[in-house]
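Below is a filled-in request sheet from our internal design queue. Each sheet records the structural input a requester submitted and the sequence that came back. We keep these sheets so that new team members can see what a complete request looks like end to end.

REQUESTER: design group, bay 2
PRIORITY: normal
MODE: inverse folding
CHAIN LENGTH: 118
BACKBONE (tokenized):
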């Protein structure tokens, strides 16, 4: 673990790169070993963020959300449809994820005084 964790230029921010994708990532993410890795990381760090592929593509996010304290759904403006966003949230809920919020990004909004206008 010590060899794999990388320090960044940002103070107190570290990265653990995923490395080479194994032939069976879902089996690996759902394994007891992954639970041990998470427990070890949690002993070292106060907060851990897992960046996963889109929940609609693979089961990685669903597997990881069972390990973590909270999940955040990222919705990309002009890319993610309302229907797909709802389905993604349903998949998180089915996996018993504790959804703590969402991020709506890539939205081009203009500031008009104190208010945003589309």
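RETURNED SEQUENCE:
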């Amino acid at each position: 673990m010590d060899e794999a964790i990388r320090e960044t230029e940002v103070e107190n921010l570290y990265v653990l790169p995923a490395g080479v994708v194994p032939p069976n990532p879902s089996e690996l993410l759902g394994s007891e070993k992954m639970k041990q890795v998470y427990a070890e990381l949690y002993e070292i760090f106060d907060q851990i963020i897992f960046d996963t592929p889109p929940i609609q593509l693979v089961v990685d996010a669903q597997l990881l959300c069972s390990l973590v304290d909270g999940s955040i759904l990222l919705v990309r403006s002009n890319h993610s449809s309302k229907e797909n966003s709802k389905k993604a949230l349903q998949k998180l809920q089915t996996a018993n994820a504790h959804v703590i919020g969402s991020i709506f990004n890539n939205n081009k909004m203009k500031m008009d005084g104190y208010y945003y206008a589309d």
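SHEET NOTES:
- The chain has one domain: 6-107.
- The chain has four helices and six strands.
FILED BY: M.R.
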